Amino acid sequence: MDKNTVTTLVSKLISAEETYPVRHPVLRKGRPITTCRFAGDELPDTFHVGGFLKDKLVAVASFYNANHADHNFIKAAQLRGMAVLDEYHGHGFGKQLVLSGEELVKKKEKITLWMNARVSAVGFYTNLGYHKVGPIFEIPLVGEHYVMFKKI
Ligand SMILES: CC(C)(COP(=O)(O)OP(=O)(O)OC[C@H]1O[C@@H](n2cnc3c(N)ncnc32)[C@H](O)[C@@H]1OP(=O)(O)O)[C@@H](O)C(=O)NCCC(=O)NCCS
Question: What Pfam families does the record tag this protein with (predicted)?
Answer without folding.
Answer: Acetyltransf_1
